[in-house]
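A common beginner's mistake is to predict each chain separately and then try to dock the pieces by hand. The better habit, illustrated here, is to supply every component at once so that their relative placement is modeled jointly.
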Amino acid sequence: MRTEYEKLREMGKSCHSKHSLKHRRQNTLGSCDWLSLLPDPLLLHILSFLPIEDVIRTSLLSRRWRYLWMFVPSIDFRCRPYYKADKTIVAFMDRLLLYHEAMKVQKFCIQFCYRDEYADNVDSWIHTMLRRNVEELYLDFFHSCCPYYLHEKALYKLPRSFFHCRSLITLSLRSCDLNLPSSVCLSSLKTLCLCKFELTSDMLKNLIFGCPLLEDLMLKNCNTNSDLIILAAHPHLKRLKIHDVYVDLGYEINIHAPGLLMLEYSGCLKRRNYDCIKTLKSLESAKFECEEYDWCLDTNHENYCFLYPKLLGYLHVKDLKLDSWFIQALSVMEVLNSSAQHITATCMEMKTGLKKWELPGIAYLLKNSPSLGTLTVSIKPSEKIKLDDFQKKYDFDERKYWKVKFFSLQHLKKVIIHNFMGGDEYLDSGQSAGKFIRDHDNEFQFVKFLLKNVVALQIMIVKTSREDTFRELAKKEPLLLKITQRILSFPRASPNVRLWVS
Amino acid sequence: MASTSNSTSSKIITLRSSDGEVFEVEESVALESNLIRRMMEDDCANNIIPLPNVTAPIFYLVIEHCKKHAEMKDNKEKKKELRSQGEELLKSDPHTYSNLMEAVNYLDIKSLMDLTAQWLADFLKGKSPRLIRELLKIKNDFTPEEEAEILERNRWAFD
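With all components supplied together, the output reads:
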C-alpha cells in the first residue's frame, strides 16, 4: 500500500518538473493531480475548512472523492440568504446527516431561519451531534427579517439533555430558548458565546457554575431590557467579552469574577454601575470599543464624558486597548482640565485617527501613563462625536497642538504606528505627494513630538498605509522616500533610537 | 544561531532532515511539533533527532512558518497576511505545498495543519467541480451514468 503510494508520488514529481513552466502561465495549480494523492486524513482536514455545500460538491470530482465527504469531521452550514426559511434547507440537513458517517464530529455549525414546524428535525440533528461527541457547536436560528422573533413560542427550544453534554468545548448560541434545566453540567466547555438572550442573574450564575472549565465568556446584546449580572464563583473564567449595543439606558451591570484576566467591552456604555470593574483585581488587560452613535441626542454629554476617565481609574491593567470614541471623550476631559487618573498600563494600543478632537485625548493618555513602555497606534478613521458647541467654545489650533506640549515619558521604549497616512475616506486620485503629506501633517507632528520628548525611546516603527490610494500615489512619486526623509529630519531626545519606516 | 543566555534559557535542539542537513532550532519552536515533543519526552532525543520523512528545503519552510505563526498571535493583520500567502505558494509551487502539508502532518504541528489546510480550502471555496477538476488536473474517471447518478442522488446539495 505504502509503496504503491510512493510510486504515485514519484510520478507526481516527474510530471511536475516536466510541465511546470508551461502550466504556470495558466491559472492551474501544477501540472498533475497531486491533490488526490494526499492521504484521506489530510484531504478530510482540508475539507473541514469548507462550507458543507462545497464539501459535498467535491463528490463529483472523481472516484477518489466520491465518498470522501461523508467522513468530513466538520459540518458548517450557513444559509445564504439568511432569511430563506424554506423546507428545502431542512430536507437538505436531514439527508446530509443520513449519509454522513464520521463517527466523531469536531464542529457543527448551522445558521438559518427557524420555524416552529422544524422543531423535530432540529431536535434530531442536535441529538445526532451529541451522540457523535461534537466538540464545537454553533446554533444560530434567527434573523432580524424574521417576523417570528416577537413570539416566544417560535424560538427553538433546546432539549434539556443538551446541558449535560460532556464533549462540548465550544458553544455558541443565538436566538433560541435556552430551556435551562436546574442543574447544568457541561464538564468540558471552555468557550461560551451567547447572543440575544435575556438572562436572569440566577440563570447566568447557574450556567457558569455548571461549566467548571469555562475560560471564555462572550455576551452579545444580552439583557438589553434588564440588568446584566455576571457572577462567576470559580476563578477559571479568564476572559469576558461584552457587546452591548441596543441597551436601554440605566440598566445595571455587575461583574464578579475573581480570576478574570481580560475584559473586552464593545458597544455603548449606557448601563449603571461601571464601578464594579473596580473589583476585578486580577485583570491584566482591558479593551474598549465604543459605538456611542446617539451621543448627539444626549443633552448632557459633557457630564457623560466623565465616565471615561473614571473607568481608566478602575482598571489596574498592564495592557490597555482603546478606540477613537474613548479617546474623543477623554479629549473633552483634557480640554476641561478635569481630574487626571493614574493609568497603570505598560502596553497601550490606540485605534484612532489623529484628527483635531482626538489629539487632547491622546495627550491625556500619554500624560497619565507614567509606566508606559510600548505604544501602538493604529490609525483608523472614525466618526466624530457631535459636540459642536463645546468644540467651538474650547477651540484650539491643531497644527500647534503638540508643539506646546511637554511631558516626559520616562519608560516608553517602543512605538509602533500602523496605517500611517491612511484612513482617508475621500481622496482625489490626482493629488500630489506634497499635498498628501501636507494633509497628513497631524501624523508627522505626532511623530515629531514623540521623537522629541521620549528620552528612552529605543525603536520606532512607522508602517505606512496599505490602502489603494496610498499605493497608487507611491507608484507615481517617491512617497515613501519623502516620508522617511521628513521623519529622519526630526530632532530626537533619545540618541540611540532606531527608526523603521516601511 | 547563538543561544541566548537569559534565565529562561532557550535550549537549542538539533534535528537532521532526510537528506542529511542539520538544523539547530530553539526548543520553543521545535516543541510546536508534537512528534518532536513526544520524542523528547521518551528521551530518545539526546543527540540529533532524525526526521526521515522531511527534506531540508521543506523543513526550512516549516520552521519559517512556525516562527511566523508564533509572531502573529492576536494580530489579525498578520493572520490575514499569512493566509493570503498561501495562494501564492499554491499557484507558484503546488508540489512544495503538498510536501509542506505532509511534513506538517508528519511532524504533527496543529497550527500549521490548520493554516495549510485553510490555504487550499480558500482556493476551493465556491468553485464548481468542473472548474476544480480543470485547475487541479483531476481526471474525471466517472462513467456518464455514474456522474448522472451522483448528481441525482446529491441533487439537494447541487441546487
